[in-house]
């Protein structure tokens, strides 16, 4: 099969890690007789340097015409880079926000997986980690508190700030369906997280999730209050499979969940719209402190590419291949600096990509 992929290398370590992800995708293409056609797109600082703005309309068009977007990361050192002397709407991050909005990417998926081989990096006690955990946070990305009306005013010498949290049932339904669809590809369990004991928006959330759940009889689901969920994530993370939640709760819980895996260089993510289309990128930033040194961990980007195969291209076997190769390589003891442990073999960015390619092709 043939797929068109818009590729945004971005800034900092972005080009280095994206190169490795493409290498791994090419190995999969070779093994399964697919064609991945890449079109490179400038965004962030790289686009500012060439076009004076972080994302051009032409770049958005290339992304819209492709089957999916694979991205490294954007941005520079926020204290020293000249990009940060520009007004906020011209800075690198504005490009990413514009792209997400233009592509209507309302569903943000962040897997939090604790690999057996990296258990030592997890800040939780061994008895809590148990057999490890492998969960997916499904966060609504374009509604709720972050997109509501806001204002700050002063009256009689007293400052008052106001933010509003609004969801309509359609916005909830589309993200809930996404959550249950993903659960069908995993172990068929959804935990919907809200604050229905206090918030009207959460009560509507709960009602709509219950309606959607009726279409997925194979999926077991439960509701959990967000404060309890925050506690359960560090008390018993193994109980979760898919966590489905609104924008702000998802923002906080996904950071909490990802941090208990202990390794920022391993965390993939996907942002999807209501078709198969998605933007796939590592959860970490552009790491300007280590850019150009050949030491960045490319695995989060490579695992994001695996998500692209699974969620945008329906190539589950191929995605499994990449994920299994990552496990095999970690088991064999290869580590980039960020996940290095005593007695393991230290490798650089390119070497990690090469070893994965060999593992996938069985060489
Ligand atoms: P960061 O994630 O780039 O780096 C935090 C720390 O983790 C650094 O020490 C870095 O070296 C390390 N690190 C990150 N990824 C790594 C990898 N793959 N391998 C090894 N080590 C890794 O966060 P930051 O320093 O706060 O931000 C740097 C820039 O990235 C900023 O301009 C920020 O705005 C941007 N940023 C972009 C995105 C994105 O593109 N989606 C996300 C977050 C931050």
* Span of the ends, CA to CA: 24 Å
**CATH-level-4 superfamily name of the largest domain:** Isopropylmalate Dehydrogenase
Catalogue the ligands.
nicotinamide-adenine-dinucleotide
Which word captures the global form?
Answer: globular
- Unreliable residue stretches: none
Quick one: CATH class of the largest domain?
A: Alpha Beta
CATH fold category name of the largest domain = Isopropylmalate Dehydrogenase
Structural class: alpha/beta
The name of the CATH architecture of the largest domain is 3-Layer(aba) Sandwich
Helix count, DSSP H or I runs of 4 or more residues: 12
Which sequence of SSEs, written as H and E, runs from N to C?
EHEHHEHEHEEEHEHEHEHEEHHEEH
Number of strands: 14
Helix percent reads: 40-55%
Rg value: 21 Å
Catalytic activity: (2R,3S)-3-isopropylmalate + NAD(+) = 4-methyl-2-oxopentanoate + CO2 + NADH
Cofactor: Mn(2+); Mg(2+)
EC number: 1.1.1.85
GO molecular function: 3-isopropylmalate dehydrogenase activity; magnesium ion binding; NAD binding
Write the layout of secondary structure elements.
Blueprint: E1 2-10, H1 14-32, E2 35-40, H2 45-51, H3 57-65, E3 68-73, H4 92-102, E4 107-113, H5 126-129, E5 134-140, E6 150-155, E7 158-163, H6 169-185, E8 189-194, H7 200-213, E9 220-225, H8 226-235, E10 242-245, H9 247-259, E11 268-272, E12 278-282, H10 299-312, H11 316-331, E13 334-335, E14 345-346, H12 349-361
Parallel strand pairs: 1-2, 1-3, 3-12, 5-10, 8-9, 8-10, 13-14
Antiparallel strand pairs: 4-5, 4-11, 6-7, 11-12
Helix pairs in contact: 1-10, 1-12, 6-7, 8-9, 10-11, 11-12
Bound molecules: nicotinamide-adenine-dinucleotide.
């Amino acid at each position: 099969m043939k797929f068109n992929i818009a590729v945004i290398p971005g800034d900092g370590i972005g080009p280095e890690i994206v190169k490795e992800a493409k290498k791994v995708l090419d190995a999969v293409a070779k093994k399964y007789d697919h064609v991945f056609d890449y079109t490179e797109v400038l965004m962030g600082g790289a686009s500012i340097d060439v076009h004076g703005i972080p994302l051009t309309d032409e770049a958005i068009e290339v992304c819209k015409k492709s089957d999916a977007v694979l991205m490294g990361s954007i941005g520079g050192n926020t204290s020293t880079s000249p990009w940060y002397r520009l007004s906020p709407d011209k800075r690198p991050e504005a490009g990413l926000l514009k792209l997400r909005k233009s592509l209507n990417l309302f569903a943000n998926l962040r897997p939090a997986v604790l690999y057996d081989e990296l258990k030592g990096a997890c800040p939780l006690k061994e008895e809590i980690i148990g057999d490890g955990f492998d969960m997916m946070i499904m966060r609504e990305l374009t509604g709720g508190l972050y997109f509501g009306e806001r204002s700050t005013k002063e009256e009689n010498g007293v400052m008052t700030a106001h933010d509003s949290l609004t969801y309509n049932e359609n916005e909830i339904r589309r993200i809930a369906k996404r959550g249950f669809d993903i659960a069908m590809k995993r172990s068929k369990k959804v935990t919907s997280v809200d604050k229905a004991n206090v918030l009207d928006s959460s009560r509507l959330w709960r009602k709509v999730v219950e309606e959607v759940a009726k279409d997925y009889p194979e999926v077991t689901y439960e509701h959990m209050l967000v404060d309890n969920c925050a506690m359960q994530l560090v008390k018993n993370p193994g109980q979760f499979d898919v966590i489905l939640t609104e924008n702000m709760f998802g923002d906080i819980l996904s950071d909490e969940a990802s941090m208990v895996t202990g390794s920022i260089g391993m965390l993939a993510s996907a942002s999807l719209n209501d078709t198969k289309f998605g933007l796939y990128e590592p959860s970490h930033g552009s790491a300007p402190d280590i850019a150009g040194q050949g030491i960045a961990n490319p695995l989060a980007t490579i695992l994001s590419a695996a998500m692209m195969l699974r969620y945008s291209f329906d190539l589950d076997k191929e995605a499994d291949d990449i994920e299994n190769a990552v496990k095999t390589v970690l088991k064999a003891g290869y580590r980039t600096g960020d996940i290095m442990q005593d007695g393991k073999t230290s490798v650089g960015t390119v070497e990690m990509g090469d070893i994965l390619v060999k593992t996938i092709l069985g060489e």
